[in-house]
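Morning run. Coffee first, then this:
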Amino acid sequence: MNFLVVLIVAAGLGSAWYGFTRVYDPKSKLALADPAGAERRADVIEALRVLAFFFLVNFVITTILVFIAAFFITLFAPPDKKPFVDAFGEIINSVSQDKGTLSPLSSGGVLVTLVGTLISVAVSQRVVRGRPLLELGLRPYKALPLDLIMGLLLGPLLFALIWFFETTAGFILASSGPTYNWGELAKWAAIFGAIAVSEELIVRGYLLQTINKAWGGTVAVVASSLFWGLAHIFNPNASLISALNVTVAGLLFAYAYFISEHLWLPMALHFSWNFAEGAIFGYPVSGFQVENSILQPALEGPKAITGGLFGPEGGLVALFAILVGALILYGWGQSRQTPTPKREKK
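And here it is:
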């Protein structure tokens, strides 16, 4: 999750919350002219307050964790044995780069992001809402095992379709592999698992569910997906097509949340999508290269179709895969019963 985007969103939501509270003060002319809409306005103002608080807390906590991690890494394992100030600056700068100690796909960067997300979501849930973290859709339910299986299988299936299409079209000129480095695969499984958990908690967890309560499902799905696309627009080799595709992928993940009413299905799908894309088929993952993948394709073709260095999500081929995924999820939603959360023992 790009720190700049989080800060911009926090500032925008905070400004909107302040403006709404001023404009629709109970004693203002606008409020007095429409007393029937008081409850509706209160819901909107509360949603803006909750979201502004969350994104600000997320930015502050994650930034603090980044500086703490960078300090200790520089102190005990400075890159290239550089002087402290130079090494510290290099590590901080790696946060927004495709390679480096705290880059988004490094073990350190992912750990910082996951811990920052868990703390900020838990704090926001407890302080602002007075509710536990599990109420965001993390409780177990009857169909959980089947949803996990579906989510874990769907990602590899969709990228197998992409691979088949690009091979048939002549875009994949050659491919080395398959090679299996189980240590590397385990590392990437942990990294992509942490990314799926942290990003789904923020986007389909806190953001979508808060907006859904105030404005309804349609606005929640569209707004959270637009944020999802914006959050990836500063990734390496991003483009307008990649932003569009990531936004549409956000619609797919949001649909996965609504048909299951929990976060486990979108988390599993998010994980398997990234893992299949990078660790199995060797494509870049949203602009970030994955090393030691099972397959390593030599790709050549129109960037608008293949996505180029951004990966399939930067091309029209990903849009096709997302639409296929949506059809499969639609059938899955029609064939399964809505899960019922288990009640906690009092």
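Residues 140-337 form one domain. Good start to the day.
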